# Entry
Amino acid sequence: MSIRTPKELNHTPKKRFGQNFLHDTGIIRQIVDGVRLSRTDNLLEIGPGLGALTEPLLAEVDGMTVIELDRDLANALKINIGANSHADFTIINDNAMDIDYRQLAERVGKGAFRVVGNLPYNISTPILFRLLQFSDVIVDMHFMLQKEVVDRITAEPNTKAYGRLSVIMQYHCMADYLLTVPNGAFNPPPKVTSAVFRLTPFAVKPLQAQDEKLFETVVRETFNHRRKTLRAIFKSASVLPKLSDDDFAKADISPTARPETLSVADFVRLSDVVFEKLYNIE
Ligand code: SAH
# Structure
């Protein structure tokens, strides 16, 4: 596998597009292996750049689609990868935030996408949330983010990293930490350590809150006071109803517990009790 450097391609990394290109072949191999592709997978890469991941990914599938915002890079990919591969390779020169992924899936006609992206960190999270709106056409997604954020998304209860992001993400998806990527693996190197993780949106959620907006409110408000007990939080939070110890018992949660000890299932039961309280359902 040959990794072309920005210099070889006469490409100056563009700050405004958040370009940090992977060049560590060992890390690239681990990421590609981590996706665990089958030849017929409907692969979609967002932000392929110079093709560091694209080339080894394309070697494992019959075809793939990429979305690249930078026109110079989209053109370079056409020449460097498209021309050298027998696989079905489609380049879309567009902003990944503007794509209708349902329409795109229909156009490609190979079912739901498996998504891979090493994107600028400021755009990864909005794109990730956008993709979650299209979860009916997405099997799973693999993203590179700051390690600290990946730690939070994949955290278990009773850890420092566990919080609002962990509960909300794990309510909608299975979240798996895949690997840590040191900053030296990129050219130019970013300031922080990164990590790759997989999100698999649930086709059928294992747990369903009666009111998802309310569930999100309960999670957000309680974690705004992560050091306090639930009893104290519910006593003082203006946007939440008062809960009695009987209400907590109904949710099977101790009023003296702190938010970080609650599992996703605990939060769903708690928010359902809040729902009943708000709407006076017995
Ligand atoms: N995946 C490559 C490139 C990483 S740099 C690698 O690992 O080496 C991030 C890439 O995302 C750049 O090519 C940048 O132009 C592209 N990009 C940035 N914002 C984008 C957006 N909104 N939509 C699509 N591509 C984007």
Summary: The radius of gyration is 22 Å. The pocket of S-adenosyl-L-homocysteine is lined by residues 17-22, 46-50, 52-53, 67-70, 73, 95-97, 118-120, 123 (CB under 6 Å).
